[in-house]
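Protein in question reproduced for absentees:

***
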Amino acid sequence: MTKRLGLFTRLLADTPAALPAQVYRNATEQFVEAERLGFDVGWVAQHHFDAEEGGLPSPLVFLAGVAAHTARIRLATGIITAALEDPVRVAEDAAVLDAVSGGRVELGLGSGGSTDAFTAFGKDATARAELYGESVARLLAALAASRSAAPAGGCNPTGPGCSTTSGRPHSPRRAVHAPGSPDPGCCSPGPSPAPRTRRTPRSRRSSSRSLRRTPPPSVHQGS
C-alpha cells in the first residue's frame, strides 16, 4: 500500500477576534507551504454553525481558491456532511473543482454529527443514516451518469467514473471517505489533526469502496 503525507485543517481562528478572511488566507498559505515541502494531499473539514469545531461550511468553494495557488497537492474534503447536502449539487461542484484543479479532487463524505445542524437544515437527525445513504447513492449516480453516453441527470462538466474495490454492498451507516482522511463518521475531525498517511483509522468498521478517474479524484468507503 502506497503511503501519503498529508495535512488536515478545521480552519480554526487563532484568536476570537480573527476574521474569516484571515483564517482562509492562513489555511491557503498552509496548502502552499505543504506543497512546497512535498506533501501529497490536504484535507479540510466542513462544519456548520459552530466556530469552535470548525470555521468552514463550504469546503469545495475554499478548495477552488486553493487550487488557484497550487499545482500538485491533492485537494480533499474530510468530510462533507452528505446527509445535509443536495447530492447533485455536490457532484456538480466537485466536477467543476476537479476540472479547474487539473484532476486533484478527493471527496470525503460522512453522515454528520451535529443535531443542531440537522435542525437548521430542516432535516431529522434521527434519520441521518437513511438520509446519508440516499444522498451518497444519488451523488454516485450523478457522477456515473456524467460518464455515460446519455448523461441524463449527470453533472456537466464530466464527473469521475465509478469503480469499486469491494463487492460488498454499500451501507448507509458506513462513512465514505478518501484514503488518509480523518474519521468521517461525524462532523468532528477526531482527536488529532496530525498529518495522515493512506492508512485509514480503525475507529469505525466499514469496507473499502472507491470512485475514481484518471488522475484519480476519488470517493472511498473507509476501512
Notes: The mean pLDDT is 75. The CA atoms of residues 174 and 206 lie 6 Å apart. Helices lie at 20-36, 59-67, 87-100, 115-120, 128-145. The longest strand covers residues 6-9.
